[in-house]
Amino acid sequence: MNGERVGREILLAEVRAWARRIGVEDRLREVQIRPMRRKWASVSSRGRLTLNAELLAQPAEVRRAVIVHELVHLKLRHGAHTKLFRALVRAYLEEASRS
Ligand SMILES: [Zn+2]
Questions:
Q1: Residue 94 maps to which CATH number?
Q2: Which of 17, 32, 33, 60 has most Cβ atoms within 10 angstroms of its Cβ?
Q3: C-alpha 80 – ligand 1 centre gap (Å)
Q4: Cα 94 to ligand 1 centre (Å)
Q5: Domain of 24?
Q6: Which residues form the signal peptide (predicted)?
Q7: What pTM does this model have?
């Protein structure tokens, strides 16, 4: 951990930017940031994204990986980690790390 904490507004802005980029801004209905016991995040098929408040203390790459993972679930509309799912996540993250 690099000790740099970000505010909730930063995390929410990152979520909004990625939702636009991934094309799920219409499906994303609600974003919550709260303590979670065992996961970094979850997303419901109804478009409720819940992010673990611990993410606020994680580096940008970790926040990005979690956000992209959950929003690709929303894009594909099912919970499975298929080949397509993994390829899409990888492509978005590689694109982000190049820019
Ligand atoms: Zn998943």
A1: 3.30.2010.10
A2: 33
A3: 7
A4: 18
A5: 8-98
A6: none
A7: 0.93
